[in-house]
Amino acid sequence: MNYKLIKLTKENDLNRELRKQKQERGELAILFVSHWDKYSSALVKKLEKRFSSPKPGAKPLYIVDNYNMPHSFVIFKSFVLPQLVTIRKHKVFSEDYLPSVYKSLDLE
Q1: What phi and psi, each to the nearest 5 degrees, are found at residue 26?
Q2: Tell me: the pLDDT tens digits for 43-89?
Q3: Distance separating alpha carbons of residues 21 and 10, to the nearest angstrom
Q4: Which residues neighbour 9 within 8 Å (Cβ) at sequence distance 6 or greater?
Q5: Cα separation of 58 and 93, whole Å?
Q6: N or C end of the chain: smaller count of CB under 10 Å?
């Protein structure tokens, strides 16, 4: 799987993407991270290295940090970081076990 990394810095940007997903019923992937967490930092560095030049048709992966957007962490009950939240149609899948996050993002 190929991802296009998009770092969000405003709550409105995430809310816009959530509304868009709800209307189109597509797939939305959000990665919640913290700048102070060494595992989150390592994961973001690996993602930036692997997906630095996304191929055409790459799926967007929205990266949200807890410093700029604390309210979004409350919405998805993100208490353990890093956490990958995938929304498909009306179902929300949340993964916070680190090896499973790496496997879901094809980083193994």
Answers
A1: -90, -160
A2: 999 999 999 988 888 999 999 998 889 888 888 888 889 999 999 98
A3: 17
A4: 68, 69
A5: 20
A6: C
